[in-house]
Amino acid sequence: MKPLFILLVASLLFFSACTQKEVIQDVSTVPAVTQEQIVEGLNIFAFDFYHSITKQALENTFYSPLSISSALAMTYAGAEGETAKQMQKVFHYGPQNSNFHTEFGALTESLRVSEKSDFEMNIANAVWVQNSYKLRKKYINIVKEKYLADAREMNFISQPGVSREIINKWVSDKTADRIHDLIPPNAINAMTRMILTNAVYFNAEWSHKFNPKMTKKRSFYCMNEETVETDMMYQRHYYQYSQTSDYQMLELTYKGYEYSMLIILPREHNGLSKLNKKISCKDIAKHDSSKQEEDILVYLPKFRLETAYELNAYLMEMGMTDAFTQQADFSGMTGNKDLMISAVIHKAFIEVDEEKTEAAAATAVVMKLTSMAPVQMAPIEFRADHPFMFIIRNQKEKAILFMGQLTTPKEL
Fold first, then answer.
1. Residue 412 counted as domain residue
2. CA 383 to CA 300: how far, in whole Å?
């Protein structure tokens, strides 16, 4: 069975000196944050970012809010002052203290699934540090103890190319060879002091597979009023479903019923733009409270997407500005205000067919020194033959792992 979801987070951090300044607040001075609150914040960020990234152009979009949020959570652990406040607001994090990082790490741990389950999901973290470089012990302990990251020494200064190859191979291995060259050429140089990586591996199949013999070439109506012929899967089954006057929402579960894909399909062929302006976490919560098991005729295109984004402009527009300027304060990492983020890069991959969904995502934060029983009735038709939005989430915590929109299906 092929791997399903992979979340990969990489953070390049460039440091100088190190002091004994406290990196996080005393937990006794602020209310404890819960995993439910962390999931709520994660999902709000998922939609905030969706609105930001989709208002630019109606094109195929796919990303992992969990990957992005996780990468920045580890970076947040070293943020102070106004920089920390802006990151907390944009990502809807809890207070900057050990309790938040403990619960964020616990959430990540709760998403893991053992090999004895119906599917496999594993999360791996690593911290790559310049040999002989002294990081604050308090900060490195947070990353190792809360995020369970292994620490490894590297020689970024004199062997940047070799270092890049080693880390990219680790990334490729952890993502079943779906994410290549996450760290681009010239990203590692003599200023590099630490790289944080996080990978999530998920392997599962649909709980109710589509019969390949039922897949036929059918029309898909694109946003530009063009029509393309694509492989359209089909099956009739009972699924959790809800609807409004504007859209239909269908929940397709994966084997084990611990994860699902939500498909939000506009009623109108060209209704995605209108949907994107209003859709939010409240709509998902409404679905969860009102959904019923219905007899559904499902038409869903097979598709494969690969995306790449540089997130600086999006995050700055959302309110995280100081981190990208010389006003940045990541003194919780080094004790000095000598770091700023130079780039936040995100890559993602998804492939949907009759048997499964396979997805992967990677994020790099590059830093540099500053200078839910139905009444029997006729089946409902759910014909996803026009642009739609989709979400992949786990069933228990309702945490959103992946999110996107399909405007033009790409052949597998």
1. no
2. 7
